[in-house]
Backbone:
């Protein structure tokens, strides 16, 4: 279960302090053991854990393919991973190095609206980040977590498990875009990022250097383009 209902107290000017029932996002600490050695702990929402581990290890370049994992077992709050790096593939799922992607403004508006509506947990609690991967026609997968980085890792893990090519896809985010997020998305091979929230100055710099188009504040029928605007096709562009 990704959320629980608990009794809390709420203050309002009309009623003062009163007991109510609220919905809280579940946060769990998992200990990761790699080849029988403790690697690190992660604090996350307890869903799609295999995807989280696959994406996390790939981003850290511990594995280069989903098939480098020979065994993955989750026991209580411990995750045991055994790997054997036999793959010669890059961590990207790309089959074509220079695949390109272009997006129309109406597609950006459509995708962000669908993205934000895709998570019951996000709507119920407001306490998770929601990340997704999509084509111009629709969302392929969406994942949620208390941590932005965890949610990105889950999406990457999904792509690696399901052989989803990233370079010609669109990444969707409900949260702030920082340079660390851009670095992760660059490692995945993504070229277009759309977020409902703000973009930091360093994220813009890194995205510009990496050739990534970053769209921020995608709300309603408006959005800002922070880097490489040529991928956003509009008949009204000037």
Residues:
């Amino acid at each position: 279960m990704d959320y629980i209902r608990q009794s809390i107290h709420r203050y309002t000017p009309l009623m003062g302090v009163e007991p109510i029932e609220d919905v809280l996002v579940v946060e769990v600490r998992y200990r990761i053991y790699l080849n029988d050695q403790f690697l690190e702990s992660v604090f996350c929402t307890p869903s799609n854990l295999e995807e989280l581990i696959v994406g996390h290890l790939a981003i850290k370049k511990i594995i280069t393919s989903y098939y480098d994992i020979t065994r993955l077992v989750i026991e209580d709050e411990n995750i045991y991973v055994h790997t054997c790096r036999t793959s010669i593939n890059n961590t990207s799922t790309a089959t074509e190095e220079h695949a390109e992607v272009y997006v129309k403004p109406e597609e950006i508006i459509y995708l962000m609206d669908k993205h934000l509506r895709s998570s019951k947990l996000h709507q119920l609690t407001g306490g998770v980040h929601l990340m997704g991967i999509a084509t111009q026609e629709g969302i392929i997968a969406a994942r949620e977590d208390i941590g932005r980085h965890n949610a990105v890792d889950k999406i990457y893990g999904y792509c690696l498990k399901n052989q989803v090519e990233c370079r010609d896809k669109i990444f969707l985010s409900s949260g702030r875009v920082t340079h660390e997020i851009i670095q992760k998305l660059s490692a995945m091979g993504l070229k277009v990022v759309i977020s409902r929230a703000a973009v930091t100055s360093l994220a813009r710099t890194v995205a510009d250097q990496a050739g990534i188009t970053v769209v921020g504040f995608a709300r309603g029928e408006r959005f800002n383009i922070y880097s490489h605007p040529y991928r956003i096709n509009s008949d009204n562009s000037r």
About this structure: Residues 90-96 have pLDDT under 50 and may be disordered. The radius of gyration is 19 Å. The chain has two domains: 28-83, 105-231. The helical segments are 49-59, 105-117, 120-125, 148-161, 179-188, 201-210.
